[in-house]
Amino acid sequence: MQLTGRQYIGKRSSNEGVDLFTAYNPMTGEALECHYGEATAQEIDAAVVLAETAFVKYREINNESRAVFIECIADEIMALGELLIKRAMDETALPQARLEGERGRTVGQLRLFAKVVREGSWVDARIDPAMPDRKPLPRSDIRQMLRPMGPVAVFGASNFPLAFSVAGGDTASAFAAGCTVVIKGHPAHPGTSELVFRAMLNAVEKCAMPDGVVSLVHGVGHQPGMQLVQHPLIQAVGFTGSFRGGNALFDLANARQVPIPVFAEMGSTNPVFILPGALKDRGEKIAEGLAASVTLGVGQFCTNPGLVLVEANAATAFKSVLANEINANAGGTMLTAGIRNAYSGSLDRISKTKDVSVLSEGQPAKSSAGVSAKIFTTSVKALIEYPELAEEVFGPSSIVVEASAKEELIEAARVLEGHLTATIHGTAEDLQDYQELIGILERKVGRIVINGFPTGVEVCHAMVHGGPYPATTNSQSTSVGTNAMKRFARPVCYQDFPDTLLPAALKQNNPLSIWRLVDGEMMR
Amino acid sequence: MQLTGRQYIGKRSSNEGVDLFTAYNPMTGEALECHYGEATAQEIDAAVVLAETAFVKYREINNESRAVFIECIADEIMALGELLIKRAMDETALPQARLEGERGRTVGQLRLFAKVVREGSWVDARIDPAMPDRKPLPRSDIRQMLRPMGPVAVFGASNFPLAFSVAGGDTASAFAAGCTVVIKGHPAHPGTSELVFRAMLNAVEKCAMPDGVVSLVHGVGHQPGMQLVQHPLIQAVGFTGSFRGGNALFDLANARQVPIPVFAEMGSTNPVFILPGALKDRGEKIAEGLAASVTLGVGQFCTNPGLVLVEANAATAFKSVLANEINANAGGTMLTAGIRNAYSGSLDRISKTKDVSVLSEGQPAKSSAGVSAKIFTTSVKALIEYPELAEEVFGPSSIVVEASAKEELIEAARVLEGHLTATIHGTAEDLQDYQELIGILERKVGRIVINGFPTGVEVCHAMVHGGPYPATTNSQSTSVGTNAMKRFARPVCYQDFPDTLLPAALKQNNPLSIWRLVDGEMMR
Known about the structure:
Two copies of one chain form a homodimer.
Chain A: E1 7-9, E2 12-14, E3 20-21, E4 36-37, H1 41-58, H2 63-79, H3 82-92, H4 96-119, E5 126-128, E6 142-148, E7 152-155, H5 169-177, E8 181-184, H6 190-206, E9 214-217, H7 223-230, E10 236-240, H8 243-255, E11 262-265, E12 272-274, H9 276-295, E13 307-311, H10 316-328, E14 332-333, H11 337-351, E15 357-361, E16 370-371, E17 374-379, H12 380-385, E18 397-403, H13 406-415, E19 421-425, H14 428-433, H15 435-441, E20 447-450, E21 489-495, E22 516-518, E23 521-523
Parallel strand pairs in A: 5-22, 7-8, 7-10, 8-9, 10-11, 12-13, 12-19, 13-18, 17-18, 19-20
Antiparallel strand pairs in A: 1-2, 3-4, 5-6, 6-21, 14-16, 15-17, 22-23
Helix pairs in contact in A: 2-4, 2-6, 3-4, 3-6, 4-5, 9-10
């Protein structure tokens, strides 16, 4: 399959733009094959208008056909075979095993969402039957269910070129909810984006889905993404990326004549608390696990543990092992030269902060966008005085923050802003002694991990990959797991409808056999 | 019980403000007994800080105690007896029967929410059990449930002095979700607010709830409300009122250092489509029902039908009966002189719009804030050319918009902005012929009513009182019905927690016997 470098307005490819860009191999710094055009205003408008036309049809497609379509996308991605893995490796420097694993995650995610669509109960159907004889006033027949919102703008993420890009979690959520999608591909991996998109087009064709159910536009500049979010026909936005990027889209969306929800997952520092008993019992083992978590995927995960909180008097052995582990780390190649530069800049900023010292540095990877891991130490006092120390550093780095005593550790938890996750390592006794900590963290994060590491976000029904601002722009949602599809739906209520006009999920005889809340009772 | 005119910082009353205001009797225009202070910055800060302290305790209170507290509020409101109804009549000019009905709705709402809290399944508990032997990677034990967000700011509405004011739907939702509340009372009925608040304080006392679980501040100016929304400890906002007010709070909340969700229900025009067969079969009867709906409560409902869409050639008899009904209407007294003035201003604006004529006007009520009902007619063409005709007029008024044919009626639906409700009157044949209309309206409103009227919003499990902007600032929520409590909660995920540390809703043996999604299967 030859890459085209073109935008895709549904099935039609387009090449209006005069500004061109290429991807670069982060290993070598060399430009990769195929020039991509910066999407023009006309191309973006055409994609959104077609997404609206397609939505009117796609929203009416039954659960089974929608599920088959989503499964077919998974099959078509697998059918790309080595071609996809090869191009993704070239564009991201992520190793083959990681990308194959991520592909597995991506198709598994699509198949799980398809299963939930097929089962059908996710729409939260509720029925309050009429009470014609109620006094003083009769009650109408009132039913509600979640309905798709309309065309969704999805922004591909740099760090998950498969699982959170073109056919990633946001797109899967939108399709599952019954929405159509216009994707803004990430400019660091346009070839990977095109390959996956064309696999999706095969699924559109094979499943006879309406043209425009999905489109793909490219761009390095801000303009295409801004235009997408401002387009009056776009009804919601899914984004994974930097705080600056996500927050800018959030502000744009709120300034529209008709504001729309932005589900931006903007990363965080994911504090890890290691309590004294755990430090004593297995500090060395935790240090090994932590070093692995910090450096996993060259630290390019939203859930990378960037703050480690310990009580100083119990942390000596832990720190020593952590220093050794990091020192032995071979480093890695980051996704892009720009990301490497940002990482270096962040390390500089931290190094220059008062009361911060370097605990350990790893070996530098010998590649164009190569970096080394780095661990700092500081005190809770400094963290409170320089809150920018808690800002995300995208890369294999972390700061060990030492508390003088329990009270200071708790105080550090209290001053935290919103994060995606928090982790506590503790013995049974620790967890009893520090129970207060859990109560504090429940208000700060989307997910609390006990005696584990925050990296490795399971795609399942109970996952919350979200959290209070600034981790995300919507703390009431998750971008990973099956609840993610609810981001792109809203409740609609049907009062006194004749049965024939009701959506299948709300019909009297429950033709879909889904779980429904009938007069307050859950039943099927 | 003597009114005090004071702010309530939890149980402590306070009187720092130097600016005083009174309520006015809209019947007579006379100032009512008791001066209320404009809450000072210190008082508001104290109320929010106390709400935060109380939240840390209140969020941990078990379902049964929380339900008993909410039920006790209902009992205490009833115990106020005639005193409450009398003061509310004086402050709002709403008739006794209406206020007694609204009181019934208010306590019914509290009791329904208590029932849902006691049952417990509303928290959407989800459990994905660990798979230690899964290949290539084991799965952790992952659980999620909804948790309360923190102190909530609630703004009392003018038009529901009981059901959407101090102990109304927003406060009931917040208490049910486990949040504490600081209420900004509506300045048109401060005495009603104080009485209801003190009933709540009795419940706080009797149920030994933490001091500060609820506070009440007053103010005529914008400052107290703005300060409340901007306070860093406030986590969410519930508001029912004007577009201007709600939108201003939405903008303020988004401009905070940490933005918070604003659930503002800002009213709408609630279009009613009357299809040709229905017009022919029972146009007169629909006209009678519509006149009653337009003038109900002096038109002071968010769901008041302000736009009526018909095909001109079938509408003659309907218009004639509607004109007579409105002409015979005795008018009524609005909630405040300001609201009366705004109503007059809106009528003037519509009267002066090109291609709009008066169909009929009712009799004026002989009271200080008295008004008469008024119906206009215009064409779909004019509605499209002058979209401000679709803006809400708060009062007993409506515009009959005539289409030349089916296509124009459908076109009118397409150009609608977001509304709370839409209504379709049609015969079985009409509904078949105009099925497209339902598809369009599903994307424009929160609730579609068939062969009924939009006024009369049932408090039940399936109600959606919400809709796309500008009807609300959050189309994914409802402010009426039991789903309203989800506005003030967000999902938190617990990974690999020991059973003892899990919230009761997530413990392995399901001690609350609630419905949970376990590995994707609903079970209890």
